[in-house]
């Protein structure tokens, strides 16, 4: 199964006009070429500034008159609450949890993302399949299997990955929640009881996976160590590029 | 393969039965289980769709008709994974004969009829080990249908394939749906080396055949 679309099959330079694609054979009964809107994904760990950036991007888009929709993990009607519950007690085995997340994702893809894109909305996704895949791979999942599971996903128009050094992430989490999150510290897979140590090493593992995925899934790494305002300006500029057709003299490197 | 390797040699053996509703497969696997138990073998029995954890979500989705072919497929795979990792795999490690009343082939047949990609669905379940022996209870479609429908049972929405829009009549929809499932099963006979059992024969004749075939394929004395 082709999980990564052949880049020569569409014109990379023409991001504003290119039609939607699935990573693999896609979803039954859905023609991605009919989807008019744009799908913009912001990826990053907790504390990377993801939510702030999405809120700013949304304000900006709405001021310009674009209709937007926010989606994120564990927000499906179908299994969102059950998934949240299952995460509280460590009762599900890894494959089960992984497929539970995939169900949550698929429900939102089919019942929220695709209908919104069909109506020409800008869909802002607070994380997408990449976080889900990275988490599973660091837990020992077969990368080929998990990529195949998520071959139902639409290829976004842009993926912004906010890379923040693990130490800064830890500090931001301390400031915000006064403690580190169990799952974001990978406590389920580590031997050390020191949560800070676990957090740092787990975040390094996740970042390593993101770097590995970057080669396969065309996304932009944004230096998230900078100020909210600076990052926001960069994201707006990059988003603008997707929304409006551009002359063709733009360097290929700018979007690769 | 997902988190655990399916290649690892497990001492247990997995025996699955597949076939249409009304093919008599549940009766046959029950008789097989009784025989193995009474002979003193280590037997574990498992059924399709019986896990508690994701039952709520399945129920909610079915009731509110929220499910699409893909989410229907994924939620059943989640349910199966839970049962597989917590029940089936441990007992296979422990050296049991595991009898499965339906296995992932049921999902392959139903989900493909619902429109899922054949390759995707096979890969989705690749974390689970393939059965050592799969008996396919083959019965002509009209016989299976009359066995099920003669009593005019209450058919459930998804069971009748109503989500596919074949017909607005529950019974008509069920017939068309089962017909497509039957075609998918027939495609899989060679692909997965099913052992075909003629399910029009009397139950005791079928059972004798099943027992003989099992003895030929599995070294049963190892499982006492």
Please supply descriptive tags for the structure shown above.
heterodimer, A: 256 residues, alpha/beta, Rossmann fold, 8 helices, globular, B: 224 residues, 5-stranded parallel β-sheet, 5 strands, 50% helix
The neighbouring-strand order within the major sheet of chain B is 2-3-1-4-5
Total number of domains of chain B: 1
Oligomer: heterodimer
CATH top level of chain A? Answer: Alpha Beta
Architecture of chain A, CATH level 2?
3-Layer(aba) Sandwich
Low-confidence stretches of chain A: 6-12
* CATH classification, class level of chain B: Alpha Beta
What name goes with the CATH superfamily of chain B? P-loop containing nucleotide triphosphate hydrolases
Strand order of the largest sheet of chain A: 2-3-1-4-5
By CATH, the topology of chain B is Rossmann fold
Averaged pLDDT of chain A, please?
Answer: 87
Strand content of chain B: 5-15%
Number of helices of chain A: 8
What sort of overall outline of chain B do the alpha carbons produce when their principal axes are compared?
globular
Number of helices of chain B: 8
**What is the C-alpha radius of gyration of chain B, as a whole number of Å?**
18 Å
Portion in strands of chain A: 5-15%
What is the number of independent domains of chain A? 1
The biggest beta sheet of chain A reads: 5 strands, parallel
Fraction of residues in helix of chain A: 40-55%
């Amino acid at each position: 199964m082709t999980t990564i679309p052949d880049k020569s099959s569409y014109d990379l330079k023409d991001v504003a006009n290119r039609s939607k694609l699935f990573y693999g054979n896609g979803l039954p009964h859905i023609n991605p070429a009919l989807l008019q809107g744009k799908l913009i994904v912001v990826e990053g760990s907790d504390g990377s500034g993801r939510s702030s950036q999405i809120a700013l991007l949304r304000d900006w888009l709405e001021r310009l008159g674009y209709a937007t929709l926010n989606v994120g993990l564990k927000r499906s009607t179908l299994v969102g609450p059950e998934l949240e519950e299952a995460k509280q007690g460590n009762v599900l085995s890894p494959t089960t949890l992984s497929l539970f997340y995939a169900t949550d994702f698929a429900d939102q893809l089919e019942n929220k993302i695709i209908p919104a894109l069909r109506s020409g909305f800008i869909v802002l996704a607070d994380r997408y399949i990449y976080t889900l895949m990275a988490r599973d791979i660091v837990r020992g999942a077969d990368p080929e299997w998990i990529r195949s599971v998520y071959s139902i996903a639409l290829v976004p128009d842009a993926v912004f990955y906010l890379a923040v050094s693990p130490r800064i992430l830890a500090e931001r989490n301390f400031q915000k929640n006064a403690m580190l999150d169990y799952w974001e510290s990978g406590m389920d897979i580590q031997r050390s009881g020191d949560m800070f140590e676990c957090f740092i090493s787990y975040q390094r593992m996740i970042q390593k996976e993101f770097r590995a995925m970057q080669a396969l899934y065309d996304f932009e790494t944004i230096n998230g160590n900078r100020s909210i305002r600076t990052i926001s300006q960069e994201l707006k500029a990059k988003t603008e590029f997707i929304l409006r057709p551009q002359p063709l003299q733009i360097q290929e490197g700018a979007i690769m | 393969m997902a988190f655990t390797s399916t290649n690892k040699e497990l001492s247990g053996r997995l025996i699955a039965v597949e076939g249409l509703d009304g093919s008599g497969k549940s009766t046959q696997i029950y008789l097989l289980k009784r025989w193995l138990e009474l002979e003193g073998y280590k037997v574990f029995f498992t059924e399709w769709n019986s896990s508690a954890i994701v039952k709520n979500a399945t129920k909610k989705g079915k009731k509110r008709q929220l499910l699409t072919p893909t989410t229907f497929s994924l939620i059943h795979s989640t349910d199966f994974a839970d049962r597989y990792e917590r029940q089936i795999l441990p007992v296979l490690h422990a050296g049991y004969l595991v009898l499965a009343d339906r296995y992932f082939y049921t999902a392959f047949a139903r989900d493909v009829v619902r429109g899922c990609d054949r390759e995707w669905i096979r890969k989705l379940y690749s974390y689970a080990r393939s059965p050592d022996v799969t008996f396919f209870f083959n019965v002509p479609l009209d016989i299976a249908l009359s066995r099920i429908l003669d009593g005019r049972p209450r058919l459930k929405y998804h069971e009748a394939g109503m989500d596919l829009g074949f017909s607005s009549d529950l019974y008509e929809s069920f017939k068309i749906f089962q017909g497509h499932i039957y075609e998918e099963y027939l495609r899989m006979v060679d692909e997965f080396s099913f052992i075909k059992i003629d399910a029009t024969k009397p139950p005791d004749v079928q059972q004798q055949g099943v027992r003989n075939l099992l003895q030929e394929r599995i070294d049963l004395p190892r499982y006492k």
